[in-house]
Design goal:
Blueprint: E1 2-3, E2 9-10, E3 24-30, H1 40-46, H2 50-58, E4 64-67, E5 72-79, E6 86-93, E7 97-102, H3 107-118, H4 127-161, H5 167-196, H6 205-271, H7 286-307, E8 336-337, E9 342-343, E10 353-354, E11 359-360
Parallel strand pairs: 3-7
Antiparallel strand pairs: 1-2, 1-3, 4-5, 5-6, 6-7, 8-9, 10-11
Length: 368
């Protein structure tokens, strides 16, 4: 993509070896298998460090910022659209060029690319503004995990209070999803903090102010993830408390049952003795009297336990059932471009394509 000084946005078939006048160029490259052949011409044109390019292709790094003087390497992470898992986007930033390198489809980057083609006004500003917009949409996609957690937390609390045994597997899935995002959110917040305070001439004062806004989004996401972890611990404590309460209720029922049966067993044991002169042993109505006495004892004991509150009428309430695992609905959140100006519906994944030439690249291998 090439943006001229008058705001005209075009997709060129060739990469410019020189600086475009009053504009910038963006090349998005999808590579696979650790091969850097697709980037050979870009390395030569922009004087990129070959080792940093190889690391971008072959290694998986956490978000970071490296200043090489005439260019910046900004590593960001975004949320995939099929799993609660993050992917890496390596951004090589010069005064007039941006090269993004990735190995997986990126719904966030695709959304920004398409919107800039449809709305050339979004291409206003320099390369640093473009990086800000890319960082914003990637970070807001990570924030969608918190929205998914908020939608699940009430169901999890209901399961915990009902001591639903399925809760443990649900909590494990949610905690795993939160941990996968939390691993990259804190480093991404630190990288954005470095960018908003950077003294590099590649970032303008306006760009630093916009990076501060994106930093606020990342900070809110990091704080929300920490609070979500604390909420999961509280839900687990509530589940254990509900389990203990249910065990206490079972013990209480057994105790009441044993307390009612104890005097009845005493009467039955008394008249079960082998003596000929027991009261009423030779009478035809003796067993009737003993039976009436036993029923009276049982009724009196039951009434006493109800009166002191040991026995109550069972409640007909039932906890709501939860379907689904983890926070997978977060991956279906629409990509938000430039501070929620646009909301996109689900977009089909493209093939592996070099956008600077429009020609297909080597597709990532199955092992990738």
């Amino acid at each position: 993509m090439r943006v001229a000084g008058d705001g005209t946005t075009t997709v060129e078939s060739q990469w410019s070896t020189g600086d475009p006048d009053d504009g910038w160029e963006w090349a998005d490259v999808i590579v696979g298998g650790g091969d850097v052949e697709e980037l050979t011409d870009l390395i030569a044109a922009l004087r990129l460090d070959a080792l940093s390019v190889r690391d971008a292709v072959a290694d998986r790094d956490l978000p970071k910022v490296d200043d090489f003087g005439h260019y910046l390497l900004v590593v960001l992470h975004g949320l995939r659209d099929d799993l609660v898992e993050t992917y890496e986007v390596d951004c090589f930033v010069t005064a007039r060029h941006l090269v993004t390198v990735r190995r997986f489809p990126s719904p966030a980057l695709d959304a920004l690319w398409d919107r800039m083609l449809e709305s050339p006004g979004l291409a206003a500003g320099g390369v640093d503004t473009l990086v800000v917009r890319l960082a914003d949409i990637l970070t807001r996609r990570l924030l969608s995990v918190l929205n998914a957690f908020d939608a699940r937390v009430d169901d999890l609390i209901g399961q915990a209070l009902a001591a639903d045994p399925r809760l443990l597997s649900e909590l494990t899935a949610v905690r795993s999803d939160l941990a996968a995002v939390r691993r990259v959110v804190h480093p991404q917040r630190e990288a954005l903090d470095l960018l908003r305070q950077s003294t590099s001439p590649l970032i303008s004062p306006a760009g630093r102010r916009r990076f501060s806004d994106v930093f606020d989004v990342a900070a809110r996401t990091a704080q929300g993830l920490d609070a979500a972890r604390a909420s999961l611990a509280e839900i687990l404590d509530a589940y254990r408390g509900a389990e203990a309460r249910m065990a206490t209720d079972v013990t209480k029922v057994l105790t009441v049952y044993a307390a009612i049966m104890l005097p009845l067993s005493l009467v039955a044991g008394f008249y079960g003795m082998n003596f000929q002169n027991l009261p009423g042993i030779g009478s035809d109505w003796g067993w009737v009297v003993v039976t009436v006495v036993m029923v009276a004892i049982a009724a009196f004991s039951l009434g006493l336990f109800v009166a002191v509150g040991w026995i109550g009428r069972p409640s007909g309430r039932r906890a709501a059932k939860t379907v689904g695992r983890g926070l997978i609905q977060a991956t279906r959140a629409p990509a938000q471009v430039v501070g929620a100006v646009f909301e996109l519906t689900a977009m089909p994944l493209r093939g592996t394509t070099n956008r600077r030439t429009g020609s297909p690249l080597d597709k990532p291998s199955d092992d990738d």
